[in-house]
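Incident log, support desk, overnight shift.

02:14 A customer reports that sequence design results differ from what the structure should imply. Their input is reproduced verbatim below. On-call engineer (initials T.W.) acknowledged and began investigating.
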């Protein structure tokens, strides 16, 4: 039995399909510049043809937001800066194409992998996928074609690229297990979209299995069993059926209220990154969008997006989500999230540096364009604007003043905007949580960003494995900051939501309910299970639970307390 990370829930009892990609050996060697430039051009063309074929094959099986990944892949191959830098290395250093590709791609990959936001960190996987494909074409290697699978299997691999995952036919591929990866990796996200069970980050697997042997994949508890006994096969087949029955039963809750047994109602919303993601929120019974990350408009462009480009995107989300509320986070970029076309100062600690609202208040030329686009779009739905990384009351006041200024400008131009727009803030800096009662006098709402709140409170980079043990959502100190934020909002009659990972954590939901959280925003696929949990709980009992948790001394004590409420 091998343990991994359950990334896409389900059970599969099947046969192993051992996937091994050709190894790309990249060595620096002197080469003829003209020949290598031609090799690079031919490889890029072949890669573009591959990507278009993979996308065409996936139409009808993947949602639009997953298919959009391949548009991003094509953009990488067409990016003049990316391709131009590779050509420059070949010309200036007289080196082979695959080495030049590797050198430039490594820089881009390193930049994305250093980012805090999982959405952007996974862009590194896009570049890795495209880079690998270009290099295989340069070297004349052949990548396995997964569309030829015609029997029921579980794929076992070191990792699956987005291209691999897009080729999977769920009539035959009943799951996959990988040696590396996490819940936010592209392969995991696409597995959830395809509803294929997946266990990732399981360590050495390929050396422990053979093509065609029996396998059990338990992607509920993150377990892989090679050569299972007949009794184990029967046990897990029954477990799989029970899971399928449970999942089917959740569909009945799509239009149900998110209401506790004693009548307390909360809102369940979805986190999105693109307009296409709204479909998943609606299909899973989401009542609104609690976090719309607008950075994709900037990250997926070769220049600052225009007011019109932004207006179209915001309008689409508001129209499709109406009458539900859409909380749009203003530009959260800088420091750890760089743009190729916008130069940022080098910083020793970018997570605590020039980013988000700090950048926007400095570069009001950029910020005003976004605010105008948002205000123009506001007439098409229920808009709430949220400012990220607020540390001081003056920052919030300055941001709010810019909104009011742009309202006046639009009025002078005769351009309509809604007179019912909420202006709120992310609470992700401990200083803001501590002063929540004062912020709530001027903000219309709060949304707690637990990912950053935790790492800032514990002084621990959650991407640093050496200190990852300090990333403790259930530490009583974090819970007290959350409670302080919620109480500060309620004191002034304002609502408080949460858009960090914790909001969709099944273990955390009873506790957050008891702490008084009004809105839970999470990945769309988590909404129905969260609704089921909430509808089985008593708000009064959860309030007592929360009070008890706040008085515990350690994370372990809190988790022990919660264990009785989470099945």
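02:41 Re-run completed on a clean worker. Output:
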């Amino acid at each position: 039995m091998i343990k991994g990370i359950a990334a896409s829930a389900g059970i599969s009892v099947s046969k192993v399909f051992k996937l091994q990609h050709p190894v790309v050996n990249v060595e620096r060697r002197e080469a003829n510049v003209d020949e290598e430039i031609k090799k690079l051009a031919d490889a890029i063309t072949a890669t573009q043809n591959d990507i278009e074929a993979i996308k065409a094959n996936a139409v009808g099986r993947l949602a639009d937001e997953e298919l959009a990944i391949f548009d991003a892949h094509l953009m990488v191959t067409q990016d003049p800066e990316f391709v131009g830098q590779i050509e420059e290395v070949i010309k200036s250093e007289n080196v082979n194409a695959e080495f030049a590709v590797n050198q430039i791609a490594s820089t881009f990959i390193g930049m994305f992998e250093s980012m805090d936001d999982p959405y952007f960190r996974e862009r590194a996987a896009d570049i890795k996928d495209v880079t690998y494909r270009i290099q295989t074409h340069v070297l004349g290697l052949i990548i396995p074609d997964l569309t030829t699978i015609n029997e029921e299997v579980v794929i076992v691999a070191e990792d699956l690229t987005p291209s691999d995952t897009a080729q999977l036919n769920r009539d035959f591929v009943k799951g996959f297990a990988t040696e590396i990866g996490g819940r936010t990796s592209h392969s995991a996200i696409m597995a959830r979209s395809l509803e294929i069970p997946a266990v990732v980050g399981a360590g050495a697997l390929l050396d422990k299995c053979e093509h065609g042997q029996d396998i059990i994949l338990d992607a509920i508890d993150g377990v892989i069993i090679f050569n299972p006994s007949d009794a184990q096969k029967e046990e897990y087949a029954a477990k799989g059926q029970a899971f399928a029955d449970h999942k089917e039963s959740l569909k009945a809750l799509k239009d149900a209220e998110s209401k506790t047994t004693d009548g307390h109602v909360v809102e369940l919303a979805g986190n999105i990154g693109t307009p296409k993601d709204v479909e998943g929120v609606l299909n899973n019974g989401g009542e609104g969008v609690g976090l719309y990350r607008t950075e994709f408009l900037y990250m997926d462009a070769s220049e600052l997006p225009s007011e019109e480009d932004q207006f179209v995107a915001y309008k689409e989300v508001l129209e499709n989500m109406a009458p539900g509320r859409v909380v749009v986070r203003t530009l959260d970029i800088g420091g750890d999230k760089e743009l190729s076309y916008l130069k940022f100062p080098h910083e020793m600690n970018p997570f605590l540096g020039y980013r988000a609202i700090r950048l926007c208040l400095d570069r009001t030329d950029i910020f005003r364009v976004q605010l105008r686009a948002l205000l123009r779009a506001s007439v098409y739905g229920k808009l709430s604007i949220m400012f990220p990384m607020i540390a001081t009351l003056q920052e919030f006041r300055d941001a709010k003043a810019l909104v009011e200024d742009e309202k006046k400008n639009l009025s002078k131009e005769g351009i309509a905007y809604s007179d019912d727009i909420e202006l709120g803030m992310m609470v992700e800096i401990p200083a803001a949580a501590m002063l929540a009662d004062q912020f709530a006098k001027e903000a219309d709402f709060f949304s707690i960003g637990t990912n950053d709140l935790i790492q800032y409170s514990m002084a621990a980079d959650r991407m640093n494995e050496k200190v990852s043990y300090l990333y403790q959502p259930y530490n009583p100190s974090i819970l007290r900051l959350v409670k302080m934020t919620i109480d500060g909002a309620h004191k002034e009659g304002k609502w408080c939501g949460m858009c960090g990972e914790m909001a969709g954590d099944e273990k955390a939901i009873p506790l957050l309910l008891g702490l008084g959280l009004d809105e839970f925003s999470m990945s769309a696929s988590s909404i129905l299970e969260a609704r089921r949990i909430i509808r089985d709980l008593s708000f009064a009992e959860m309030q007592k639970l929360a009070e008890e948790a706040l008085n515990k001394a350690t994370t372990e004590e809190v988790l022990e307390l919660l264990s009785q409420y989470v099945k």
